[in-house]
Write a structure and sequence with these properties.
Radius of gyration of chain B: 13 Å
Order of helices and strands of chain A: EEEEEEEEEEE
Radius of gyration of chain A: 14 Å
Low-confidence stretches of chain A: none
Mean pLDDT of chain A: 91
Helix content of chain A: under 10%
Structural class of chain A: mainly beta
Largest sheet of chain A: 7 strands, mixed
Order of helices and strands of chain B: EEEEEEEEE
Distance between the termini of chain A: 37 Å
Oligomer: heterodimer
Helix content of chain B: under 10%
Largest sheet of chain B: 5 strands, mixed
Distance between the termini of chain B: 37 Å
Number of helices of chain A: 0
Shape of chain A: globular
Mean pLDDT of chain B: 93
Largest interface: A-B, 26 and 22 residues
Number of helices of chain B: 0
Number of strands of chain B: 9
Structural class of chain B: mainly beta
Chain lengths: 116, 108
């Protein structure tokens, strides 16, 4: 079946511009996550959605970052007034919680953001 | 969630077993041990997880120490397609903390 998809796959933007990154999770997955991966680094947690609610936004690095999810499905991560340090691969994952506290996360291919 | 420690890199010959270690000395009783791997230019993919007992699946085996302070991911016969960064995560919630992982190089 279809996996997690993200668009665009690559985005080059000028410093100071706003960008929107999109994530389409696996159908039926109620949980959705955004991560950021800088070059040569591990993944950094940004935000977690359960349905349309975001109970954990603790990883968003500044108020320039925001995310929303509509219809319990598609999510958009918005970065306002982009800075060069925002350059990274932004990864989205989704999962379907089971009765155990173990959420196997399915990742998309990521969006590579370059801020010039 | 517990901090995990892994070697930065390891090498293996093709078709030989690989043992990838992970230390998680501050793990709590309810933290699961998860392993993911990330192939070049892709998002991470799930490999295996466990709580206390050793686990096997079609991809790998997970050996968990009796005190749960360490674990080992075992690839029984490494192939060139197993070359990736392997992440060990100890978590009792949805929030995964990814370290820098172990970069596995498989030699033909």
């Amino acid at each position: 079946g279809a996996g997690v998809s993200q668009s665009p796959s690559n985005k080059v933007t000028e410093k100071g511009k706003d960008v929107e990154l999109r994530c389409d999770p696996i159908s039926g997955h109620t949980a959705l996550y955004w991560y950021r991966q800088s070059l040569g680094q591990g993944l950094e947690f940004l935000i977690y959605f359960q349905g349309n609610s975001a109970p954990d936004k603790s990883g968003l690095p500044s108020d320039r970052f925001s995310a929303e999810r509509t219809g319990g499905s598609v999510s958009t991560l918005t970065i306002q007034r982009t800075q060069q340090e925002d350059s990274a691969v932004y990864l989205c994952a989704s999962s379907s919680p089971t009765g155990q506290v173990n959420y196997e996360q399915y990742f998309g291919p990521g969006t590579r953001l370059t801020v010039t | 969630d517990a901090k995990t420690t892994q070697p930065n890199s390891m090498e293996s010959n093709e078709e030989e077993p690989v043992h990838l270690p992970c230390n998680h000395s501050t793990i709590s009783g309810t933290d699961y041990i998860h392993w993911y791997r990330q192939l070049p230019s892709q998002g991470p993919e799930y490999v295996i997880h466990g709580l206390t007992s050793n686990v096997n699946n079609r991809m790998a085996s997970l050996a968990i120490a009796e005190d749960r302070k360490s674990s080992t991911l075992i690839l029984h016969r490494a192939t060139l397609r197993d070359a990736a960064v392997y992440y060990c995560i100890a978590s009792g919630t949805y929030k995964y903390i990814f370290g820098t992982g172990t970069r596995l190089k498989v030699l033909a």
